[in-house]
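Below is the record:
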Amino acid sequence: MDRITADEPGTRLYATFTSGDDPIEFLHVMVFGDEPAERLHRNSEAVREFVGVLYPITIDGVRFDDLQLLASAPLRHE
C-alpha cells in the first residue's frame, strides 16, 4: 500500500477486503480522482507485479466492475 500512496497521488482510496467465509477470496476497492489517475494505476509497476503473480493462480478468474458511488460516510479511525 505504501507504493500506491507514494507513487499514485490521484488514487483516493485503495482498500482490500477478504471474505470471512473464504480467506482466499478478496475484494479490492479503488477510487481514483480522474481517468488519468486510474490509467496511471493500471500501468504502474506495482500492478504489473501484482497481476503477474495473481492472475496465473486464480481459480475463477478476475472480475472488474466499474461502480458509481451513491453515498458514503467519512471513515472513522478508532
Observations:
- The CA atoms of residues 16 and 28 lie 4 Å apart.
- Helices lie at 2-7, 35-42, 45-54.
